[in-house]
Structure formats: structure tokens, C-alpha cells
Write a structure and sequence with these properties.
By secondary structure, the chain is mainly β. The chain has a domain of 67 residues: UDP N-Acetylglucosamine Acyltransferase, domain 1 (3 Solenoid), CATH 2.160.10. Helix content is 0%, strand content 25%. The chain contains no helices and 15 strands. Strands 1-4-7-10-13-15 form a six-stranded parallel β-sheet, with no helix packed on it. It has a four-stranded parallel β-sheet with strand order 3-6-9-12, with no helix packed on it. A three-stranded parallel β-sheet has the order 2-5-8, with no helix packed on it. It is globular, with a radius of gyration of 13 Å. 34% of the residues are buried.
Length: 118
């Protein structure tokens, strides 16, 4: 964990997870193992980040957002979501499925963002 990282109550942080300086992670979030979160990110409460996720710097993830890493559960084809620098993922109505990579400064709103499955 970097300097000045804040992790609120009842939040799980998995092994081999890298969290950049100045990042805040809200209560009741589940930050799984083997993922990377950049600097100065704001991750609100009740968020799920699966293994393989990469989050850039200065990213905002709203409350209740769920990212996924498995196109056909349960399978062996796990691929994390990549959220580029300065992106905003709104509240729980926004979902990003496995293999998605956002553009920098992108805003994900109410609709699903889906990667081609194959």
C-alpha cells in the first residue's frame, strides 16, 4: 500500500494487491487478490473488484459498482477489467464485464460495458 491510503470499515483487501498513494476505499468493499489500483483513486462503499483488475490513477468508482472477470461462470478464462486514468464509473447501475478496457477520462453510466466474448 502506498502512502496515505485510507481503507474504511469491514473492507477486504486480498493478497498481492497494489494500492497507490492517496487512494481511499469505502466500507464493505471487496478488493480481491492480484489487482492494481493507481494513485489518488476514490472507491466508494460496497464495491467488488475481481482478480486481474487494473485501475489507473485518479479514478472514481461509485457506490455498489461490481466488476466481473469471468464471461461464463465458472470457467478458467478469467480476464480482469482495465479502467484507464481519470475515468469515472458511476453508481451500482454501472457494470463492467470481464475483459473490458475503458479509455482514459471515460465515464461509465447506467448501461453495461461489455467486451466481446470468445
Amino acid at each position: 500500500m502506498g502512502r496515505d491510503v485510507t481503507v474504511w470499515h469491514f473492507t477486504y483487501i486480498g493478497d498481492e494487491t497494489v494500492i497507490g498513494a492517496g487512494t481511499s476505499i469505502g466500507s464493505l468493499s471487496h478488493v480481491d487478490h492480484h489487482l492494481t489500483i493507481g494513485r489518488n483513486c476514490r472507491i466508494q462503499g460496497m464495491v467488488y473488484l475481481p482478480p486481474g483488475t487494473v485501475i489507473g490513477d485518479n479514478v472514481f468508482i461509485g457506490p455498489g459498482v461490481i466488476l466481473t472477470n469471468d464471461p461464463f461462470p465458472p470457467s478458467e478464462k478469467l480476464k480482469g477489467v482495465t479502467i484507464q486514468d481519470n475515468a469515472v464509473v458511476c453508481a451500482a447501475a454501472a457494470r463492467a464485464r470481464c475483459g473490458v478496457e475503458t479509455e482514459a477520462a471515460h465515464i461509465i453510466e447506467r448501461a453495461d460495458v461489455s467486451a466481446p466474448v470468445g
